């Protein structure tokens, strides 16, 4: 995949985000990516559905799915993943906490064939809004526990900004219904032996007065989700890319090609058969 041909599917779960969803979608399109947008409304009751339908009519939403009742973020994300047709899939909330201008940087390791999944970390070097101390402590503890069980060295397991190759993401046996989708994705990607990268992103968190939904109960539940998805079945199968990554040949040096030699690109294709 290259930056010229890669198509990114953005899955946007929506639940009562009337105040921000239109701005989030327009900002996403303003980035200029080769984009497919899948919006899943998860039973909103505040007028979000009408806004989404108008944006679909305008051509800004490629696929709009309406859940009759609220099933949780994980349910909405899984619905969106099933509709994705792009080369890679990103999950992007409708609350403006994450900046879509960070997406090209997250796509880069996948475009270059170095990664199967890239996490946007709020705790590397990007600017972020200063908010709740105990949320930061909770994130650190949950990421540490997840790393202990996955043997990864992530800095931000709970980040919303995750970009994953579509064929890998659609192969994962995802089950989470609420915010447990974040630790489950991490556990399944580790089980699939995915090549994972992190990249710094900016973050503008919301206060509860501004509409933030996750609370301490979700933090406690996340401990169970981390244990459950890492230790109990089903487990993800090892991921084998349909199109193996072939390292670029050096521009200088090496022996000249001899008659009968098979080009590296053809040799890779034969090896995959």
Task: Describe the model.
The protein is an alpha/beta fold and 273 residues long. It has one domain (8-231): Spore Coat Polysaccharide Biosynthesis Protein SpsA, Chain A, CATH 3.90.550. Helix content is 36%, strand content 14%. Helix 5 (133-150) runs parallel beside helix 8 (216-231) and helix 7 packs parallel to helix 8. It is globular. The two termini are 19 Å apart.
Give a brief description.
This protein has helices spanning 21-30, 48-57, 73-83, 103-111, 133-150, 166-169, 181-191, 216-231, 264-272; strands spanning 8-14, 35-42, 63-67, 88-91, 117-121, 162-165, 196-200. The chain has 273 residues and is α/β, with parallel strands linked by helices.
What order do the helices and strands come in, and which of them pair?
Blueprint: E1 8-14, H1 21-30, E2 35-42, H2 48-57, E3 63-67, H3 73-83, E4 88-91, H4 103-111, E5 117-121, H5 133-150, E6 162-165, H6 166-169, H7 181-191, E7 196-200, H8 216-231, H9 264-272
Parallel strand pairs: 1-2, 1-4, 2-3, 5-7
Antiparallel strand pairs: 4-6, 5-6
Helix pairs in contact: 5-8, 7-8
Key structural traits:
273 residues; alpha/beta; Spore Coat Polysaccharide Biosynthesis Protein SpsA, Chain A; 7-stranded mixed beta sheet; 9 helices; 7 strands; 14% strand
Radius of gyration: 20 Å
Proper CATH architecture: Alpha-Beta Complex
User: Could you say what the CATH topology is called?
Assistant: Spore Coat Polysaccharide Biosynthesis Protein SpsA, Chain A
Report the structural category: alpha/beta
The largest pleated sheet is described as: 7 strands, mixed
By DSSP, the count of extended strands is 7
The number of helical elements comes to: 9
Overall geometric form = globular
The run of helices and strands is EHEHEHEHEHEHHEHH
The residue-averaged pLDDT reads: 86
Fourth CATH level, the homologous superfamily: Spore Coat Polysaccharide Biosynthesis Protein SpsA, Chain A
In the sheet with the most strands, the strands line up as 3-2-1-4-6-5-7
Strand content: 5-15%
CATH class value: Alpha Beta
Low-pLDDT stretches are 244-251, 253-273
Distance between the termini: 19 Å
Q: Kindly state the percentage of residues in helix.
A: 25-40%
Number of domains: 1
